[in-house]
Amino acid sequence: MSEIEKKLADMGLELPPDCPSRASYLKYRTWNGLLFLSGQICEWNGTPKWLGPITPESAMEESRKAAQLCALNLLFCTKEALGSLDRVSAVLRVGGFVNAGPTYKTGPAVIDGASRLFIDLFGDAGQHARTAVCVSSLPENAAVEVDAVLAYT
Description:
By secondary structure, the chain is an alpha+beta fold. It has helices at residues 3-10, 60-82, 107-122, and strands at 28-31, 34-41, 43-44, 47-48, 88-99, 129-135, 144-152. It is globular and about 40 Å long. The protein starts with a helix and ends with a strand.
């Protein structure tokens, strides 16, 4: 078990058992020390756990957990691509998509669930540039989708 997976376990979290693709794309692509990760929705083993749209009445903590689950799926793909999460040298960029209506104003706060996990796991190397937007729909009506670009050794 990698050091990062031990940190996950200490946080009471684990990697999903699988992270299936939903269409004709690669889950990840490596290039010159960079790992480009395709967007992952808030699903566990192919089943979405939070559905959209997120509304102002939705519990923020639950919405952040949805984003955190997206990040766990990204980490599953990272381990699949690199063999070990300990090879991650930096989280460079995170993109977050929140299934919400045009009046929802706190989409960035939702994506903090993913950002916080990366920072908690990787420390300063987990600090990243980020985009967070609200969109009218996501695959399988998922509440949240997150993608990322990581550097690795």
